[in-house]
Amino acid sequence: MTRDQYEFQDPRTQYPVLKAPEQSQPEPGLDRDLVPQADHGEQSYRGTGRLQGRRALVTGADSGIGRAVAIAFAREGADVALSYLPEEEPDAQEVVALIEQAGRRAIPLPGDIKDEAFCERLVAAAAEALGGLDLLVNNAGKQVHVERLEDVTSEQFDHTFKTNVYAMFWITRAALPRLPAGASIINTSSIQAYDPSPGLIDYASTKATINTFTKGLALQLAERGIRVNAVAPGPIWTPLQPSDGQPIEKLPSFGEQSPLGRAGQPAELAPAYVYLASQESSYVSGATLSVTGGSPTP
Ligand code: NAD
Ligand code: MG
């Protein structure tokens, strides 16, 4: 019998402590090549119709947290447009197959969201293919660990802000004229917004920006009946980490410092996004939902 996300159990032992071997992938990294493999709910996420008939655009939907969100949204009854980079096609095709197995439509839309014109085409293509848009998940992100600020190149700083902040702005701006009252926007923040690692200053700064953008936009869009929230994950096992997201030697103990004693799996993030996307969270806007393995957030 396959366990699902509703089964009562001890969260410390729900997943094993990772003990990942040292490994490295070129950016953006592939879930396919992650050791050990991550859980995105492929075998376990059970939908109950919470997003029936919704039309969602999810960025970074090929792998990691975005993949778990795309699978969960589809199993809850949503059609999903997927944004990812062209070199991630093998990961994306697995997600497309899983969405279709759930009986929903998957619209793969590869391209680079550092490009403003592409962001506009992405939103237009998603809305056209899905017949509209009700849910937007700005989840794509870039994280490259560099020990000393003197060694952070202007290109890295620029690309990190383009991917994490500008793209969120461009995609959200393009989506707004298409979003009806009842729509929900969800941005992926991070515990790094509050508790920055010394080697992730550029990345952590983008996440603080995402939190403030989320709160301000929630206030602005309340009068249109559109809700805006963020999810702040702690250490989650995804291809972001072994593709220069962490120093290689830190990977074997990744996540063990969190109060629950282990890294999180992408599957453990999906219910937070489903909640914020669904009508169950009708009175929740401007919030940040922390999924940090027990690390407190302000
Ligand atoms: P991931 O590598 O699986 O997902 C990131 C995705 O971003 C990639 O799959 C890629 O499709 C997309 N992306 C990056 N640059 C892009 C570009 N230029 N154009 C188009 N797409 C691009 O890793 P993840 O950990 O699931 O990351 C998802 C989000 O979660 C990110 O915003 C990340 O900052 C955030 N986050 C992750 C962790 C963690 O520990 N893994 C913790 C906190 C926050
Ligand atoms: Mg990916």
Biggest beta sheet summary:
7 strands, parallel
Query: CATH homologous superfamily, by name?
Result: NAD(P)-binding Rossmann-like Domain
Kindly report how far apart the N and C termini lie.
39 Å
Task: Count up the helices.
Answer: 7
- CATH names the topology as Rossmann fold
Summarize the helix and strand pattern as letters.
Answer: EHEHEHEHEHEHHE
- Runs in which pLDDT lies below 50 for 5 or more consecutive residues are none
Number of strands: 7
CATH architecture: 3-Layer(aba) Sandwich
Query: Which value, in Å, is the CA radius of gyration?
Result: 18 Å
Bound molecules: nicotinamide-adenine-dinucleotide, magnesium ion
Estimate nothing, just give the exact number of structural domains: 1
Mean pLDDT: 98
The largest beta-sheet arranges its strands as: 3-2-1-4-5-6-7
Shape: globular
Short synopsis of the structure:
With 298 residues, this protein is an alpha/beta fold.
Account of the protein in words:
With 298 residues, this protein is of the alpha/beta class. It has one domain (32-291): Rossmann fold, CATH 3.40.50. 32% of the residues lie in helices and 12% in strands. The protein is built from seven helices and seven strands, in the order βαβαβαβαβαβααβ. β5, α5 and β6 form a beta-alpha-beta unit. α1 packs parallel to α2 (89-101), α1 crosses α7 (270-277) and α4 runs parallel beside α5 (201-221). The longest helix has 22 residues, at 154-175. It starts with 54 loop residues before the first strand and ends in a 7-residue tail after the last strand. The model has no long low-confidence stretch (mean pLDDT 98). Residues 28, 62-63, 84, 88, 91, 239 line the site of magnesium ion.
